[in-house]
Protein 1
Amino acid sequence: MAAGGSGMSTLALPQPVLASIEGAIEFIFTPQSSSVTGGKKVGGLEQVIELTVNQLEVTFLALALALFVALPIGLYLGHRGAGELLAIGLGNAGRAIPELALIAFMAAAIGVGLLNVTIALAVLGIPPILTNAFVGIRQVDRGAVDAARGMGMSEFEILRRVEMPLAVPTLMTGIRGATINILATATIAPLAGVLTLGDFIINRNVYGDDGVLAGAILVALLALVLEFALAGLQRLLTSKGLKLSPA
Amino acid sequence: MISAALAAPLAAVGEVGEGFFKERTSETLPCQAQEERLFCFDWAKDNIGEYWTPAVQHVELVAISVIVGFAIAFVLALLAHRRRWLQPPLLAATGVLYTIPSIAFFFLLLPITGFGRDSAVIALSAYTLQIIYRNMIAGLANVPSSVKDAARGMGLTDRQILWKIEVPLATPEIVAGLRIATVSTVALATLAVFISAGGLGKPIYEFINFKTNIIIAGGLAILIAIAFDAILFGLQRLATPWRRAAAE
């Protein structure tokens, strides 16, 4: 619909597009010769797996760091009902962080490498997790919390056994959003010296158009698989009682 | 249709990069050489004008993407509001588009729309669909049925109820979705440089080791996001005068 440009009227995939996809699939499975690497072959399953592992590694490291920082703060503020301005404002401000500028600035100011990229990506993950943890806990029915307190639960028990289970859907929404944004941004991590699948996309002169398309397909699939897995995890963690009530 | 409507500004797309800062390198050397310097004010003062074109491109990219995304999401939400069975498949479909990382989406379009603004706009507007669609469905669902019953009792048709009651009452939620989508798109549009669609990502990528440059371009992106957010908030207040009246 937004195409409208030159020769884009046909919706059925034209021959060149099919050829590109074929080329990309071939790139994924068998190493190809590249014009700039001096005879060294690029692509192939081995490199694809290596870069996929790298991308997942930096994604999960950053997610772990973001959870470690954001979850306790969000849960605590939510439980105390304090710091709403901070928790909500941070979530809004976090969305405005330009991904490319963040990665580039971290690389230029602190340096390249896995640790620095992990920190940069965690910065993207913290706001949605913190905000959703806060909102999720705040949304819990005060009656349920009062009942738990009346039963003699400690504040920690209330958080752990009443508020957190009831906040799972909202909490997981934040974690899913953070994960997908971190994974997406990890695609440009090669700019900061961490080779992920994005290397295929960014270094077009090395990998060629087949490599670029292969990288795009792989990154898209990786994101969808991760999102699907997290949605499954959310279903597992959500208590039966919550599933019965309409979301 | 998009490239036709924007033929004039499109000509500038992708042309910023060539020698963007290059001829000024000698002037910037003294400050650039000091790697520990976080920000070179002199350089910034001399070069701030260079950011005008990328900033304008950035605003255009975001505005077009959000308008296209809004138009499509609006139609989808109205359809799904009428035919409830459409809601789960539409949520899933927009969810897939939302999940695919923008930079991957740009290059999935490479064999079809090639380098340039078309690919960027398609990917960015696809990204906004879910946010706008979901908020709009929620907004329409939250209209109290008593209000709709009253409207029906007054003799309004279904179509009148939709346009005179439901859509206006859902405006705060719709605008809330629009604001989230717009601010996220401003940030994501920095990646459009990889598909040669210009924007503030261009200067960042061109001169990626120079902190002053990254701070200026990144800062401008954040300012644009704040400006869009404020404008949409203002529009919402104008569009819902009854809420202001209730607050007074």
Protein 2
Amino acid sequence: MKPLDPRLLRYARATRAYLALTVGLGVVAAALIVAQASLLATGITGVFLDGDPLDPVVPLELAAVVAARAAVVWLQERMAVRAGTAVKSELRQRLLARVVALGPGWAAGRRSGELATLATRGLDALDPYFVRYLPQLVLAAIVPAVVLARLLPADGVATTTIVLTLPLIPIFMILVGLHTEAANRRQFRLLSRLAHHFLDVVAGLPTLKVFGRARAQADTIRRVSDQQRRVTMRTLRVAFLSALVLELLATLSVALVAVGVGLRLVAGDLDLATALVVLILAPEAYLPLRQVGTHYHAAAEGVAAAEEIFAVLDTPAPRRAGTVAPPDPARATIHLTGLTVRYPGRAEPALDGLTATIAPGEIVALTGPSGCGKSTALAALLGFVTPAAGRITLAVPDAAGDGRTEIDLADLDPAAWRSRLAWVPQRPRLLAATVADNIRLGRPDATDDEVRRAARLAGADAFVTALPDGYATRLTDDGGGVSAGQRQRIALARAFLRDAPIVLLDEPTANLDEATAAEVLAGVRRLARGRTVVLAAHRPELVALADREIRLGAVRAPLAVPA
Amino acid sequence: MSARHHAGAATGGTGPGADRGGWLRLLLAVSRPAAGRLGAAALLGAGAAATAVGLMACSAWLISRAALQPPVLHLMVAIVAVRAFGIGRGVLRYLERLTGHDAALRVLTELRVRAYRRLAELAPAGLGRHRRGDLTERLAGDVEAVVDVLVRVVLPYAAALLVGVGSVALVGTLLPPAGVALGVGLLVLAVGVPALQARSARRADGGLAPLRGELATGVVDLLHGLPDLVAYGAAERRLGRVVDTDRRLREATERSAATAGLGSAAVVLVTGACVLVGLVAGAVAVRAGALSGELLAVVTLTPLAVFETVGGLPAAAQRLAAARAALGRIADLVAAPTPVPDPVSPRPVPPGPYTLRLVDVTAGWAADRVALRHVDLTLAPGRRVALVGPSGAGKSTVAALLVRFLDPLAGQVTLNGVDLRDLRGADLRRIVGYLGEDAYLFDTTIAGNLRVARPDATDAELEAALSAARLLDWVRSLPDGLATPVGEHGLALSGGQRRRLALARLLLGDFPVVILDEPTEHLDEPTARALTADLLAATSGRTTLLITHRLDDLAGVDEVVRLPARDARPVPTPRPRRVAGRAAC
């Protein structure tokens, strides 16, 4: 882990001001520490050696210094929380904007759950970094310097001891840290496998019970857990060495300084006030470095989250979006020519050389076994994925009727093109909003009557009206509160309201029971009227709806089930 | 469908805080086997802190004494002590950390096993099917919270208590007012500041939690729904709303930031106050002759070291809040009633052949969510019955009743006339096998998954089962054959292969009665048709209940029972002709 990633300064501007403030407060804090030591030393020496009563100014000044130190600490932490919040907010907004810009094609290749966690709880891991680690890092640079500057004129020997031992701490920590990291890497796989085991067994509990194996697994869990403990302890024995070195160097150095100062006092080379200042300040020189060590691991987690975000932010856009306005879809014929799509990390193309023509007003069914690329073809039409080979073009007859203009889909303004499309995916995503707002997705300004009409056409009006609050019923996360069939019909209503000339449907009746499928099918039939429809279909009744069927090749099936 | 998906409510009933002290009792119970090690760790921790305090006290005395320029010999004990303290802290702390982590990990094992045993009793009815994935992941994380509690809260507090009492005694003996001040200061840090922090955190969170929830929902909607949003041109608008929520959350957080840092400031203030009391009261005592002058530095400076070692207490207390919630959830789980308890004195399983019967059964995953009303069903020996009906008709509830994952709310389920509630669940499930849509594949090899059914099965027996499930040719074509790993949740296999592997496992279990619950759900049409035919062929000769919503592949069954809308009894229909069934679709 780099102590301070320059990208953090670049992507999160709030970091800069915070860093400057922290340095300023660090200097003040260091000065106050030195002042406190001097006051204490003066006070004690006066009473003890000179037998005077305590100068009343000393406790007053001391109280003021303590109050000031507390204020600095409070201010620092308050600023840290504010800065951390601002940085998290800035990174979150940049991340989300970037993901939206990269689009569904890019997001499809990653687990969206991980991204969502990263954008929320993952970022929270930056709190310890900003609130604890970074300030201590700054103090670790400032406090020893100020303390040493104060000690140098007072006692050269003690200063030298500290100057010599202080750098040993980071050096040893880095050495031990490197060793730990290597050991960690070796054991991380083993550890995560062991941790995974518990999850796997618990998730499979019903199955274990069916086979009467649930009880027996308790012993396995104990054994695996014990093994995990032994592996962890092996790592920790090394990892804690860095703390041992840190403590040992810091405390032993203080002890050496104390003894040395004592001996020089006896010899009369030093006065008591100076000796006390040395004694009080010596541990302070080591303290921030020790704190950095304490907060290192918590901070590393936050930095790791930030690095994941930087990786997304640094992802270049796959290609420049086109800018051409799309032609009138009612006249445009869609040509797919040798269309091939590959997803990163997969050897086989998801869609292999599809050539087809879709005339305006035609209903076309894409058929073929699972995994033959039906959904991918629709994703290409939506502009979600960039073809690895081949292209999609729109051909419009010229006004004179003696020729035609062809436009590549890649050159079109994607937003304008998509405004001519309605899409009902296999599993539509419903938002945590009202039913009406979910239907309004493609036309936010639609009136209540229009929403209702679309729902009626989609066969959704009856069940929506029966919901507790009708169209104003708020769905919970991802359509919690409606069944799979109802979800499909809400998505159909979306498509109706969108009123687009081209409709893309992806197995809208998959996994529905017969009665529900029939209702959805009736909605699809109404939607198809007067539009160009491309339909990914398994069910014969869905295929029967189409004017024409395009069979996608039964592509390679090395893992296919025996028929 | 709806019945199973709302089952989560059944167990969600015991919310957090249902039993406030539950987490502590649980913690004590699981910590008992490691009590010795934990005690040792606490002593080592206290020792490490004591050396730090000792180093400061001893050095302060050494320097004060040295200022009077005695013969060096008189300082030797102090010098040796200071050096010993200098070494002791690091070493003791290292040992404390190792001992403490080892003990905590032992406790973790104990808690894991305990939680698992409890889950095994509860599953699946007591867990709720809806969010089982969430539940297990959360549980795994919650269990690990115990390490945090022990290592970062319990042990530091125990060490602080020991060293705090010792320091107060030392300083108090020398100068009673300074001892009192130190004691009060320690109490403030260990108890007062954490209580204040908790209160302000609660107040702040009360305002922030709804915004955090709104933000999380917005982010999840945006990222998971990105294809829908982009297709409908709504992504930018949605992003704008998330950004707006984010801004409001930031402003609210900034408003509540004033309380941040109060804990750290309190440490500084309390330390300063104790030092001041030591100096002022000490100076008075020295003048009055009640305190030797060379001890003034000791009473004044010792608090600096004491608070350096216990300064982490407010932060430790903050950790407790989160960890306590996690342990509380496990305590709730441990305290949850067993939904399907085994009888106190179970009856022996009657001899075969077996007839399973539902007699006027009303059932549901929760009392207020009845999925099945007044249903009768007979599964006679050797009969092959298909149970069909629309989603939500309670088909899967029937399956759960027959393997006793669920007890009826009214009526009874019998095996050869014996109520299933009088049998041990494990005994019943040696007779009745179950293959569900959600048959789980473990992250191990093909052979490992098969041997879940029979740990002692030979490779030949595994191959026979695979052959019956029509998977053997494929397995043999794999380079690693039976030793091929199936991946997490079996994801290295296709949907059809997963079901066939689960079928092979069921066959290996050699159950006289099998329940096949929507075994082709979520498969594409040709795969589903082929699998249904193979399923019926492979289980021929066994009493079979095939639960399905597909009407067109029922040629192999003797009887079709329709489970219509709720409130109606199932109507046996004559066996459909295969051709007619197809045409209807």
Protein 3
Amino acid sequence: MTRPLLPLALLLAACGPRYDGVDIDLHSEPPVPVRVSDNDFELPAGIAVVIEVKPLSSNQFDYYESDQLDLRSDNRQVLRVEPTGDSRRFVLIGVAPGQTCVQVEVDYRDRACIPAVVTAPEP
Amino acid sequence: MRLRFLLLLAALPACSDDYEYKPDPGYGELGVGVFLYECPTSGDPYCTNGSPAAEFPQAFARGGRIHLRYDWKDDSEHFGEPLPQLQSASPTLLAREGDGFTALAGGYAAVLAVTGNSEVVDLRHIHIREIDALRVSNTGDALALSELHLEAGAETILQARALDADDVTLGGVLGHAWTTADPEVLAITAGADSGQVRVQGGLAGDTTLTLTIGELAVAIAVTVDPPEDDTTTGTADTDTDTDTTGTGTTTDSSTGTTTETGTTTDTTTGTTGGVL
């Protein structure tokens, strides 16, 4: 009985998007320059910026808004990542100078770690 | 010719002078609400009557206490929702203490409006700057006052301003201390530890009024004139003492009204409140 279902299950699994990184855009205007890209973050302590994150797929199936996406900081004493009311927007908050990594979780799986640097406060 | 006239007509609206300045009361950078700057104590140059400041301060003094309140921009879009709590992005720059914040170090520090489920709905950066200079001015006037003339018995209110290196009046509650060198000439009647001080002229004479915040101080020269209709204060009542000691004769003239000249030990000092 299980044998005929196995190909069907494999077929269904293949119909979903295949993770291929994230597209990250700055969505606010901080008073001092910051660097926000798909590959790294750099901002001074005290600064908070809103970013919009879009998971990319390498196959013909795109991610939906309803697909789970979360960002977590490895060290919240250096950088906080907080949610907003929009599931694709997050707030990066420079807490104190240092380096850390921002974990990207898509569909409940850790997919990437984006390096982040928090510099000394801008005078 | 006609074309030139049309071009001139088209350019005229651009030259109109109907721009209306609208102060920023503290709109959040995400456009959801407004961060209102409140003055819980009297004497703040940004909000003198206890209500939120009409304009959000451009910068705040390091060491100052900052009281903020968040309001939705449009209540109808958030009917029944509790107001977000305010958080500091960096406690080393801006520490949350009691019902307000304390500016601890220079730089930009974001204040976050956070809902009960930890979502950031809005934010606003505040600029914390060092106090570069102090200024004493008349209330409602930003110009520096270097000297003050008062009639005996008259009262006036003076405003303290903390300025940054760019001459910007800094927000934040600071520990003010007003002192008068001669309380017989100029008395502090209210606000000795506030941003606004009330002083009253006493005996005719000269003295200084000093404002101190932390390690900075500024002094203004004060002259108290006798009342115009007062003829009893006898500046014409001149005594002439003749000093016959020693060789020769020295004539020393002094006015009879300056009975307490040189008494500088009797100094009134305002208590320093606040955090500086």
